[in-house]
Structure formats: structure tokens, C-alpha cells
Amino acid sequence: MENFPKLILLFSGKRKSGKDFITDKLKDILGDQCEILKISAPIKEYFAKSLNLDLNLLMSEKPNKEEVRLEMIKWSEMKRSENPGCFCEITCNKAKPVEIWIVSDIRRKTDISWFYDTYQNKVKTIRISTDLDIREKRGFQFEKGIDDAESECDLDQYKNWDLDVTNNDSITCEKSIKEILELININIL
């Protein structure tokens, strides 16, 4: 697996910015040469096991997930204090040996550092920006203790993105996907 992946795309953005929508579109375009990885998957998996919760509930967009989000964030912060890259490492260890990994949910500077330290020049960072009123139309509601926590805000001041794209509507989404494909030198659209 030393030669794989050849490229790692790290995506960051606020809740309801459309990270999953854009990364799913990229997966549709790139097909079997890529895999979508979620840093939140092992967090949710281990959290669900520790409290005997339904993992499918935590992986969904169902409202019940919001009831345990704050507790899950606190638990994951405790784990990260022991090893800042623990969830990145678990996620990558479970990944398929494909050419491109699309990591759809980077949330912290320590996540980005871990990927750069581990995979060096294979890493590209992409920030998805979406206007607040658009996020609210998509169902976002500010929650104190969640949306002002490190898990949502640590990358707000990060400036070293390889690409910063907008996802407010179908036009900006299509433009963003084209820019991402140009960043990785794939001319499909």
C-alpha cells in the first residue's frame, strides 16, 4: 500500500455547507479510482459502542443525532487530547488502496498537520464556503456549545488552503467541482 493513495483531498467547511454533496459528486465523477473517507466515522463508531447507541443513527442526518452531538464532541476531544491524530489514523488504516482519498470532514488544524506529516506532498486542502442564509435554508440552526466549539471553528482562520470554493447554489457548486478537478489535473467536465 506504499504507493497508495497517490492523492489525498482534505475537505473542510461548516455544517450544511454541502461538503458531502460535493464529495459525493466527485466520487461519481472519479468512480473506482477514489474513496470517500470520513474522520467522523470512527468517532461515531467508537462513541456508539461506548454508550451502546445505534451507529446508523449517528451516521445519518436524523434529528436524534443532534441530541448526542455535544456529548460525542466532548468524548472525541478527550480522545484527541491523548492522541491528536487518532481518528485520522484509524480512518486511513481502514481505507482501500485506491489512487485518490477524499476526506470529506476535516475539522482541525491537527487533522491537516497529521495528513501532511504522514503523506507529505500527496495532500491538497479544500475549503467549502457557503453563505449563512443558504446553510439555514439547508437546515442549519446554530447550537451553542457545538457551532462555536473547536470542532466547528478551529479552521475558520486557517489560510493555507490549496483551494477555497463556494457552494451556494447549483451554479457555484458546478464551478467548484470544476475548480477541484483542475486542482488535481483531471479534465472531465
Could you explain the architecture of this structure?
The structure is a single chain. This protein has 189 residues and is an alpha/beta fold. The chain has 9 helices and 5 strands, in the order βαβααααβαβααβα. Helices cover 49% and strands 14% of the residues. The chain has a 5-stranded parallel β-sheet with strand order 2-3-1-4-5. The two termini are 30 Å apart. The mean pLDDT is 88.
Brief digest:
This protein is an alpha/beta fold and 189 residues long.
- The low-pLDDT segments are none
Strand content: 5-15%
Structural class: alpha/beta
Summed over residues and divided by their number, the pLDDT gives a mean of: 88
Quick tags:
9 helices, 49% helix, alpha/beta, globular
Record the SSE blueprint:
Layout: E1 7-13, H1 19-30, E2 34-37, H2 40-51, H3 55-59, H4 63-82, H5 86-93, E3 100-103, H6 109-119, E4 123-129, H7 132-137, H8 150-153, E5 163-166, H9 170-183
Parallel strand pairs: 1-3, 1-4, 2-3, 4-5
